[in-house]
Amino acid sequence: MQLFISISLFILSLSLQGCSQSYEDRNKTIITSLYQELEDKGYNVGIVDKYFDKSYIQLENYKTYNFETFKDHVRDVQAMTRKVKFLPFDQIITKEDYVIVRYFVKAQLKDRSIQAPVVAIYELNKDGKIIRLWEAGVTSDMVKNSDYILNQATIR
């Protein structure tokens, strides 16, 4: 009987590990899909509704957005951007509810091009919606300020 209980507990622990791994894979896929959709379709508020939970909070270079103010931010980015290209992730790490990505973004703005590094830490809920983002990199305020251009870039 004790052997049966030990084997059952071992099998249960393996199945829980498998659930955790597939959960992390799902979160990685969600974030990867978000960036692909941003690149393919551009910034639009529909993406916010699709990927982000209504309780969403973003902390970005000393600015904080909630779900509604983030939608305004997306509209601002959309208004000043012609094309966005996310270079392949330098790193993507998943751990439970978190996905961490490090990459470069190239943006063709109305009047110039920019390229900047970004580090983003996403937290997703059990439903696969993004509930929190900590991001360090280029911001819309930096883009508006013509003195901040990390590197000129041409998007092809």
Write the layout of secondary structure elements.
Blueprint lengths: L1 H40 L3 H7 E9 L2 E4 H14 E6 L4 E5 L2 E12 L3 E12 L5 E7 L3 H5 L12
Parallel strand pairs: 1-7
Antiparallel strand pairs: 1-2, 3-5, 4-5, 5-6, 6-7
Give a verbal description of the structure.
With 156 residues, the chain is of the alpha+beta class. It has a single domain (2-144), classed as Nuclear Transport Factor 2, Chain: A, CATH 3.10.450.50. Helices cover 42% and strands 35% of the residues. The protein has helices at residues 2-41, 45-51, 67-80, 140-144, and strands at residues 52-60, 63-66, 81-86, 91-95, 98-109, 113-124, 130-136. Mean pLDDT is 81; it is low at 8-12 and 146-156.
Short description:
With 156 residues, this protein is of the alpha+beta class.
Any descriptors?
single chain, 156 residues, alpha+beta, Nuclear Transport Factor 2, Chain: A, seven-stranded mixed sheet, 4 helices, 42% helix, disordered C terminus
